[in-house]
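Mods, move this if it's the wrong board.
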Amino acid sequence: MKVSTVIAINVLRSSYPPSVGTFSDAAAQVSSKIVPLLERQGAPLVLNMYSYFMYVSDPKKISLKYALFTSKDVVVRDGNLEYYNLFDAMVDLVFAALEKINASDLSIAILETECPSIWNLPYTSTNNAKTYNRNFMDYISNRTGMSRRPRVAMKAFLF
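Not the wrong board. Structure tokens:
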């Protein structure tokens, strides 16, 4: 049996661009104890990844298309990596933070992600929730990995 733990994106201190992802001092201390256990077991670090909350925190700078996986154009360039969606950038933030604590080989699984259909108008709608959920499932199903780790498959679950 494997044991893991769940983290949220707010344990990161830096968030833009994705390559600057670093854990807060407190999260880095805890992670340095948890990561070796996860690596020994071959268990992933589990994330609750709500790109919706990042979007609504700054809708003037983060486009809805970027949040819903519908952008056809590169939205963020970070060195040689290009990001078309916020989810990919957020996962790569965590990968970058893991690299900075010498956990480059640790895998990630997404336990929770969603775009709510109600609650925070005008940023939520049934249509946005359907679009996010459909595009998220397509994105995860049709990709081998994220931009920073293109050949590493990831497990993910909708909440």
